[in-house]
Structure formats: C-alpha cells, structure tokens
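Dear H.,

Thanks for agreeing to be a second pair of eyes. The structure we're designing against is below in token form, covering all 196 positions.
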C-alpha cells in the first residue's frame, strides 16, 4: 500500500532520525531514564516498564493512521537519545503534525533538537509538499511552547479541556503551525541558529 509518508531516514551533522522499531526498546528505555523524564506530569515519556507499549502504540499509529515514528540518534555517539514522529496525518489536505517528541536530558537544549526539526520540516515541506505542519503542547509545558515559538511557528490558539491526562487532569492544548509560505523564513532561521 502506497502512503503519503513512506519510511525514511533523515540525517544531519548532529542527529539521525530513523524509523522506530521494536529493537529500539532498550535504548529508548535508557534515554528516558536520563532525567527520569516520565515523571514530568504535563507530557508523556514512557517509564521503563511502559516503553514496549509506547513503541507498539507508535507502530500501530503507523499501520492504521499513516504516522511515521522515529528513533532520534545522536550522530556523534550513535546513542538513541529520544523519539519524535509525524502524526495526525491528513494526506488529502497535505497537513501533518510533528510531536511525541522527547529527548534524554543530556541532549536537551543542544543543536540536536534544532537540527531534528530542520530535517523534519525540510522533508515535510520540500519532499511531501505539505501546506501546513502543526505542533501541539500542553499549556503548562512552557519550555516546549518557547521552543516551538523559537522555531518560527505561530500560535493558532488554545484548545481548552482538549484531553483527559493520564492522571485525569484536563489538558488545555496550545496549537502552533508553520504554513508553506512561512517555510523559507523558518528554514533560514533554523539554519542560522545551527551555524552559530
């Protein structure tokens, strides 16, 4: 079956994004353990006992919904340091979301994240011919909101009481997007930041 988003490996100087497989389970468990990321209440990173289920859910989204989950690999060390994915795929309208992104604490706020976003956005706009790419985050995840805005994404709005969290707390979701006409400026900004 042909899909809009086919499996692809995206490579840069700092990061390599490879399609997620079950074989990544031990490395993803280790990456999430760097900082005990599963303890963050406003985001979902799998705890060691839930990594297998996290991967199975991501692969199910691939089969049923056309998503493409990636393992994030530090190009310098070869270590798996997190995960990200294309999802909420709307092929008819050439829209997708980049999300489910998390990184081991040791690589947070490094060039790795900027380059990963540059690779994902370049593929989305220049290979898939997407007309819009969305990002969504919990209202309380201020670090994520700042990082998304720093990419050059514009805030579209806030979906209030959008989801029920794993602890039963209602989540307000902040929606951002980059549209096709904004991509050249966003690309220039990300490239400039990486060059610095």
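And this is the sequence the design step returned. I haven't edited it by hand at all.
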């Amino acid at each position: 079956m042909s899909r809009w988003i086919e499996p692809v490996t995206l490579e840069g100087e700092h990061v390599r994004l490879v399609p997620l497989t079950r074989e990544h389970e031990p490395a993803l468990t280790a990456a999430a353990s760097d900082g005990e990321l599963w303890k963050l209440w406003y985001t979902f990173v799998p705890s060691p006992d839930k990594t297998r289920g996290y991967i199975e859910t991501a692969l199910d989204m691939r089969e049923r919904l056309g998503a493409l989950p990636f393992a994030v690999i530090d190009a310098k060390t070869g270590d798996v340091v997190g995960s990200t994915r294309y999802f909420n795929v709307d092929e008819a309208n050439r829209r997708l979301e980049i999300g489910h992104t998390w990184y081991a604490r040791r690589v947070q706020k490094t060039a790795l994240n900027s380059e990963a976003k540059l690779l994902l956005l370049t593929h989305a706009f220049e290979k898939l011919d997407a007309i819009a790419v969305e990002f969504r985050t919990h209202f309380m995840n201020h670090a994520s909101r700042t990082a998304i805005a720093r990419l050059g994404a514009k805030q579209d709005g806030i979906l209030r009481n959008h989801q029920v969290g794993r602890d039963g707390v209602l989540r307000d979701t902040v929606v951002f997007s980059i549209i096709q006409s904004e991509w050249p400026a966003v690309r220039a900004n990300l490239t400039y930041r990486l060059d610095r």
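Two observations from my side: The chain has a mean pLDDT of 92. Residues 10-195 form a domain with the Aminopeptidase fold (CATH 3.40.630.30).

Warmly,
E.
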